[in-house]
Amino acid sequence: MPAISASVPGKIILFGEHAVVYGRPAIAVPVEQVRAKAIITPGIHQPSGSVLIQAPNIKIEALLSELPAENPLAATVRSVFDTLKISHPPALVIRISSTIPIAAGLGSGAAVTVAIIRALSDYLGRRLSNEQVSNLSFEIEKLHHGTPSGIDNTVTTFQKPVYFQRISDHQVIIEIISFPKPFTILIADTGVPSPTSITVGDVRRAWIERSDYYEGIFDNIAEVVQNARKAIESGSIEKLGELMNANHQLLRELDLSSQQIENLVQASQHAGALGAKLSGGGRGGNVIVLASELQATELIEILKSAGATRVIPTQVR
Ligand code: PMV
């Protein structure tokens, strides 16, 4: 049996993070420059049924049977076996690697999960549909995030720009968005890891205490998202930039910014960027900056001088 692999891009949320956990829409796009990969090979020297998981980036090398139920890698592999009703798998090696920074809002957890599901089901000769892949990885997202919206697993599964809204536990709206005019986004890393589970938990506690106030902010974010979709579909880049700034203000009101984020947002605004906002969980991770093509090179340098540990320019299309 030859090796089978799957490679899955990262993702970035353009609009609507956090409010999306409360049933409002959000827009996210794949980021092809960073990827997670899973390779499955036969476990030639292993006893039958043993599955070896190797994830050198996070220093894991262990048999599936040794890993606890809540380990996301083990849970992913077990969920594929359960779905395919495989009680005695062949001896396997699953090797996972990723260039997606962890806890930076680039969807590393979801991309690793989707890569494992795709490679493993293909190796077992039982390719799963996009819907099955996304649903399985949503269950694993719960181990990473607590109460995920499902946007990460959706974008990494479909690998297309999506407008996403969770209507209920079992119902989501997923619409692929087209960009008539491609535009340039700079993804600038604050260098501060910020686990999404923590910020999502903080917003939830605050929402429980003052739900009317928070619901109002989520409604305002939803309006920004709807307008952003119109701006994307009509190619109005200036308008999109204004909406990014507006979304960032609303995320500040949710107490999700930090000094490092503000340094990057303000530096890019002063340098004339069309718009800038934090992206994903907040308090660290990445800032996204909308730039004209002419501005991009200069803005990358400005972002680095303002503290960005790395800047990924990406064309959204
Ligand atoms: O930090 P990220 O990019 O993985 O995204 C989290 C997005 C949230 O809206 C904060 C949470 C979610 O599950 O949608």
- Average of pLDDT: 95
How many angstroms separate the termini? 37 Å
> What class do helices, strands and sheet pairing give?
alpha+beta
**Shape call:** globular
Number of strands: 11
Largest sheet: 7 strands, mixed
Strand residue content: 25-35%
Which ions and ligands are bound to the chains?
A: (3R)-3-hydroxy-3-methyl-5-(phosphonooxy)pentanoic acid
Helix-strand pattern: EEEEHEHHHEEEHHHHEEHE
How would you characterize the overall build of this protein?
Helix content is 41%, strand content 26%. The protein is globular, with a radius of gyration of 20 Å. Strands 1, 2, 3, 4, 5, 6 and 7 form a 7-stranded mixed β-sheet that branches. A 4-stranded antiparallel β-sheet has the order 9-10-8-11. A hairpin with a 4-residue loop joins strand 3 (51-55) and strand 4. The mean pLDDT is 95. Helix 2 packs across helix 4 (151-158) and helix 3 (130-145) packs antiparallel against helix 4. The two termini are 37 Å apart. The chain has 317 residues and is α+β, with helices and mostly antiparallel strands. The structure holds (3R)-3-hydroxy-3-methyl-5-(phosphonooxy)pentanoic acid. (3R)-3-hydroxy-3-methyl-5-(phosphonooxy)pentanoic acid binds at residues 13, 17-18, 20-21, 105, 107, 145, 148-149, 151-152, 196, 200, 280-281.
List the helices and strands and how they pair.
Blueprint lengths: L3 E12 L10 E17 L8 E5 L4 E4 L8 H12 L8 E7 L9 H16 L6 H16 L5 H8 L3 E7 L2 E6 L6 E7 L6 H14 L1 H23 L3 H17 L5 H12 L4 E5 L6 E6 L1 H13 L4 E7 L1
Helix pairs in contact: 1-2, 1-3, 2-3, 2-4, 3-4, 5-6, 6-7
Bound molecules: (3R)-3-hydroxy-3-methyl-5-(phosphonooxy)pentanoic acid.
The site of (3R)-3-hydroxy-3-methyl-5-(phosphonooxy)pentanoic acid has 16 residues, from helix 4 and helix 5.
